[in-house]
Amino acid sequence: MPALKHPPHEAFAQAVANGATGVQAYRDEVAQGCTTKTAIEAACRLLADCNIAARVEELQKLAETTLEKRLGWNKEKA
């Protein structure tokens, strides 16, 4: 799957894939000045979007594969 067409959604997906919570990712990448309530609601909507969820999963698998290749690390060894 290529990068998401909407740059804020792609940035959100990358942040979540890198370990940020949905709320943190939304506040950092999409709407810096929003309220906590807004961030929670919006992050839930974005994480429920099948395209965004698939992108997050793809980015996480890519990171895992990269670690395996570079360091010989995998979940079984951990």
Report on the structure:
By secondary structure, this protein is mostly helical. Helix content is 69%, strand content 0%. The chain is elongated. The protein starts with 6 loop residues before the first helix and ends in a 7-residue tail after the last helix.
Q: How many strands? A: 0
Outline, from the CA principal axes? elongated
Category from helices, strands and their pairing? mainly alpha
- What string, H for helix and E for strand, traces the elements in order? HHHH
How can the largest sheet be summarized?
none
Our Rg estimate from Cα atoms comes to 14 Å
Count up the helices. 4
Q: How much of the residues is beta strand, in percent?
A: under 5%
Distance between the termini: 28 Å
- Sequence stretches where pLDDT stays below 50 over 5 or more residues: none
Helix content: 55-70%
- Overall pLDDT confidence: 89
